[in-house]
Amino acid sequence: MDNRPIGVFDSGVGGLTVLREIIKVVPDENIIYFGDTARVPYGPRDLEEVRKYVFRITEFLCQKNVKLIVIACNTSTAAALKDLKKTFNIPIIGVIKPGARTAVANTNNMRIGVIATKGTVESKAYDYEIKKIDESINVCSIAAPKLVDYVEKGILEGKELDKVICSYLKPLIKKDIDTLIMGCTHFPLIEKQIKKCTGKNIRVISSAVETAMDVKKALKNGRAIASNHSKPTRKFYETGYGSHFFEVGKMFLGEEINNVESVSLEI
Ligand code: DGL
User: What's the rounded Cα separation, in Å, for the pair 116 and 98?
Assistant: First the structure.
């Protein structure tokens, strides 16, 4: 038994989509969530720059005595997961491998599409993880940077958003994909809109569920599951001010978020 918190982070609110699934499978765990809202979006930045942010956030979480870290951000996972694992002596789980695994399990025609940030697409991390499982699968990736901005602004529906989504997805649909990975943790917040554009013949995948399963497995293997709390604690940190944690979080997690602290994390 280990009642220390799990640390979960993202550039912004997108990681809440992963947190929701984690809470479902390990509801007794204490959680610290970190959103780097002063520096969001990560996607257009150089991966080396993102790597610096990710290392600083990981240090911050380790100072808070977390027992395991979830990088609830594809761009950060692509930029730094390997190096973080070499540097920090606690279990660290990213979202790309679980997403790739889920997509491979779902495709029938061996054509998988990925929409993600520019950083994730350019890293080719999904191509690598998918082809590691099955070399014969065709992967087609598109960067969809505008979608992160919509979600961070709390714009989760509307005609304008639908139009932008469809313009990103058109080339993927033309490639005859049967499975689409939402390769950015912000995107499950607009999953309904994405599905409106893909139609019923394309399966839309988020890595959140599989990532949460990996968290449970890691806690079990390390004998680090929390003992039954009457009420587990959730603490939220952000580097910006007044972002959409309250509204988005409430809507998405199905619980109030009233414990947000703003911190300045000098890099
Ligand atoms: N949510 C993040 C991801 O999964 C990044 C969005 C961004 O900051 O550009 O890639």
Answer: 15
pLDDT above 70: residue 65: yes
Cα 118 to ligand 1 centre (Å): 9
The residues lining ligand 1, judged by C-beta closer than 6 Å to any ligand atom, are 10-12, 14, 40-43, 73-75, 117, 120, 148, 184-186
Could you give the residue ranges of the DSSP H alpha helices within the chain?
16-25, 47-63, 74-87, 96-106, 118-123, 125-133, 145-152, 159-174, 191-198, 208-221, 245-253
Residue 184 CA: nearest ligand 1 atom is 4
Phi and psi (nearest 5°) for 113? -105, 150
**Residue range(s) of every CATH 3.40.50.1860 domain in the chain:** 6-94+209-262, 96-207
pLDDT digits (tens, 9 = 90+) for 166-194: 999 999 999 999 999 999 999 999 999 99
Residue 185 CA: which ligand 1 atom is closest? Answer: 4
* pLDDT computed for residue 243 by the predictor: 66
- The CATH number of domain 6-94+209-262, selected from 2.60.320.10, 3.40.50.150, 3.30.499.10, 3.40.50.1860: 3.40.50.1860
| Catalytically active residues, by annotation | 73, 184
In DSSP terms, which residues pair with 7 in a beta bridge? 32, 69
The atom of ligand 1 lying closest to the CA of 95 is 4
CATH number of 96-207: 3.40.50.1860
The average pLDDT across 187-209 equals 95
Stated pTM of the model? 0.95
Question: How remote is the CA of residue 164 from the centroid of ligand 1, in Å?
Answer: 17
